[in-house]
Design a protein that fits this description.
four-stranded parallel β-sheet, 2 domains, Rossmann fold, alpha/beta, about 325 residues, homodimer
């Protein structure tokens, strides 16, 4: 098959060199924030592909040794810097088992880049400090891989539609910043006083809720958190809801939206409005994104726009953003 | 194939009526505490089976509509009372798609029991108030299904070894109560004062950590929590660790034990001993359990023994155990 010209060249090169029709399983493998993008990737894959897949933390993947791993399996890994030891180890382990490996990183010369069959470079604003175009982000790359695999394995070829949508995504995000800006002003000071803030989402957006909970609230602001699945909420977690508890609900527009709506109704029934920050994707102007991918790009919009919120929160907490860590990037011997 | 005589009759009946060799996917589907047992089921399945599988919250499963769902797929569901609406809806949805369904419940006459092709009854102490034998528990049943599927789909037949191990499990749990009892006395009063307690585990035990976090700490004690995967801990969550933060670490003996050991070392390096409750499965007397299944039965032991801990915690919190809920079983209109 041939992919559209505008596809990421390294994605096109990787997919054209892999016998996709012979694949029998895809593993999405990473740690932390990079693992969080694997959840929406699997969501997209589950809805479009006939191939089975799994999402695993990299160390879990190696220790678990899934029996299905072997020749004719594809392992897609991601580490922003390419220096995450567990992810590099997972790439080596996968290759030893005969699997084909694709590794996403901002630095193809990194250990992960060197360990995989097919390194694919993406851009991240956190490494350069310079704004990037969303079509060059990790989300964009993983989605290009997913829909490329779908097309090459006999599914519908939506690669042209996808790349068109991804090319228009940055303008959508820029508009979303304006849409959500009033929320940040309304909630930042109050949320900055909290010791616990839960995030909640489902479907394509669950990964963004996970990332915001563990990489932003916990890691950067030392605020206790958990990414609660919008339906799992009703099977235990909702009992912590009272008039003081704060939540960030990411209300998507994919096929799981009703789950978020039910959670929102409950939050507003028993919680207080000042504690319930709802990002509703239905309020966004998604012109330029094909309806078939609007639900999928939403988590990227949520995560990107929430950076402005957390900077405002951090200002109120007087904790230096991105540098306020105790352990990460400060310790090396663990 | 024929399963051992001591296998649960309904499991044997279900598996003998299903053409397992024709299956191409297994879905493990439930909500909350019942979902938590699907994680160790998948762990066992991943290590023994050549069939692919997924674990989904029941509402997510229906809304996601995985493309692989259809004829020649098996959907295994669980709801203790059999009245969980999302799980019953998932069973109906799966059957409409042509899948075969097995439903675990204490009440085969419940809505879930009526909605599935093959209801399988298990025992739960929470419904009868009477102690049960662990071989009749939900964990035991799901493991019998998993290893039955493995044997029937061309994998190694360990069903005899498994049922022998499960038959000896209650004695192991009874001994484990004594092993861990000193921990409960040491930690209960201090943990009762906490507003946040994290749980942590990996591999076979992750589900037990999830269940203890959302169904026990959050639901029954209104203590904020998150089940942190032992390796994901190092990719964000560990930044909330300080001299005050409390953790329950479930240190298993399956193939992921090294992940828990690394987390434990870090917890003890930067946390305080009084805040770090470690349940180490290596301290247990597992005589009677075949070494090939020792790692798998550990989460059941952890979860069962921790009940005694949470009763002690609840005593200190003066919050009535199991009845101290705001919403669950009190509201019906949500």
């Amino acid at each position: 098959m041939s992919l559209p010209d505008r596809y990421h060249p390294a994605v096109s090169a990787a997919l054209s060199s892999i016998d996709v029709t012979a694949l029998r399983h895809v593993f999405f493998v990473a740690c932390g924030g990079s693992l969080s993008i694997m959840h929406p990737a699997k969501f997209m894959f589950d809805q479009h592909a006939s191939l089975p897949s799994d999402v695993f933390n990299a160390a879990e993947f190696v220790a678990r040794q899934p029996k299905r791993l072997g020749p004719d399996t594809l392992v897609i890994l991601c580490s922003m810097t390419g220096t995450t030891r567990e992810t590099t180890a997972a790439a080596k382990f996968a290759r030893e088992k005969g699997a084909v490996t694709i590794g996403l990183t901002v630095d193809p010369d990194s250990p992960l880049g060197a360990a995989v069959d097919h390194p694919v470079k993406f851009e991240a604003p956190y490494t350069t400090g310079v704004p990037i175009d969303a079509k060059d982000s990790n989300y964009s790359i993983i989605y290009q891989i997913v829909m490329g695999l779908v097309a090459a394995s006999g599914g519908e070829d939506l690669t042209g539609v996808l790349i068109e949508s991804l090319s228009g995504l940055q303008a959508v995000i820029d508009r979303a910043q304006e849409t959500y800006a009033p929320l940040w002003d309304r909630y930042a000071e109050h949320f900055a006083k909290q010791d616990v803030i839960y995030t909640m989402a489902s479907g394509a957006s669950y990964g963004a809720a996970y990332s915001f909970a563990i990489c932003v609230l916990m890691e950067m602001q030392w605020i206790n958190s958990q990414a609660i699945h919008s339906n799992e909420f009703f099977h235990g977690p909702f009992e912590v809801l009272d008039e003081t508890r704060c939540f960030v609900l990411m209300k998507g527009i994919d096929s799981t939206r009703a789950l978020d709506e039910r959670a929102e109704a409950f939050l507003h029934r028993f919680g207080r409005a000042e504690n319930i920050l709802v990002l509703d994707a239905a309020e966004l102007d998604l012109a330029g994104i094909d309806p078939r991918f609007q639900g999928n790009v939403v988590p990227l919009i949520f995560f990107d726009t929430l950076w402005r919120f957390i900077y405002k929160v951090a200002d109120h907490r007087q904790q230096v953003m991105l540098d306020g860590r105790r352990y990460m990037k400060k310790l090396t011997d663990y």
